[in-house]
Amino acid sequence: MSLEFFRRHTPELLIAVFGIISLVAVSGAVGGEVGSFLFASLDVALFVVLAMLVYLAEDRHRAFRWAAIFWLLALVGGIAAAAAGMGVIAILPAEVLGGEEIEAPDLALAAEVALLLLGVLVAGLASLIGFSRRFRVWLARYLPFDPDSLLHTTALVVILALILIPPIPLLVTGGPPFLSPQFLDPLLASGDLLADTVTLNAYTLFWTLIGSFFIAGACVRRTPRQVLERLGLLRPTGREIALAVAVAFALVIAFHFIDPALAALVGWLGLPVTDVEAVNLLFAGSLTLPGIIVASIAAGFGEEVSIRGLLQPRFGILLPALLFASLHAFQYSWDGLISVFLAGLVFAYIRRYSNTTTSAITHTVYDLVLFAMLMVGVSF
User: Fold this and answer.
1) I need a surface site. Which of 89, 154, 236, 261 has the fewest CB within 10 A?
2) In a domain, 380, yes or no
3) What are phi and psi of 218, to 5 degrees?
């Protein structure tokens, strides 16, 4: 088969490759490090398949349009189911999760679970407003995306789903699921929380970068060089590197004062404040020198490339910043989410007036300093 054949059928090949990888990862047929490596792909594989279906719908046959819409709806449903599942786990008592029977039904507990499920359902349905052309045309007055593009429409629905759905468990239960005893206690008891997470973070970064490249059209609509330019992954100048490091340290200093003020404000409003000690336990597995380096690079470059690099040029600063904050709703309360949102705005403006590489360096150095402080016993 010729090289032209592979170029023409890249979307189909990528759907097959990522589909097979996902099936193998979910089935658990492969164990060990290879199994962990494949399992890490699940965060991005489903989005790559969606992007390839959309590319096929726009370039080939309209039948792929219905396949893309079906896959999109399934993806939104999956996001909703995952959020609902984590929220329910955080609500149910440990004895219920352990399979023990409850003598009398707890109506308050049942009502809270029902409210959680209803909230997730409403958030998922609300994200489908992205299908409304009137809404897209209105939004396109302020953002540089094409309201008639299936690719941009699909991306908008995904962005709205990832903004609206993850905070629902926090909104209903009053605390982020990952900080609940139902999550933390089993991890602490098993010792898994303290396991080395260096390879997992490295695998996640690899798949995030690969997925972002293909979603941006690598080998489909753009050459690798064009994809690098589209994502803003340019070689930084010495001045940009110096700026990135300076801004990172300035952010550390600024948030040393901002975070307590946000916690006081959120507490005054009667909203739950992030449990800093519980958050520190979540990061315990990364608190080695290799761990904090890899974790910082994985978060800095992975999140900047996928959010600021991939999404910001089409959806502006605000929506990706909200998405960035919302993705942290499983581990932070409202004060933490506001802090993440503010940091995301800083990274976004660096991306706008410089490039993604510079914002990624800023993000990486910022996280590295915070992890280093935590490792030596300074809480943040």
Assistant:
1) 261
2) no
3) -60, 130
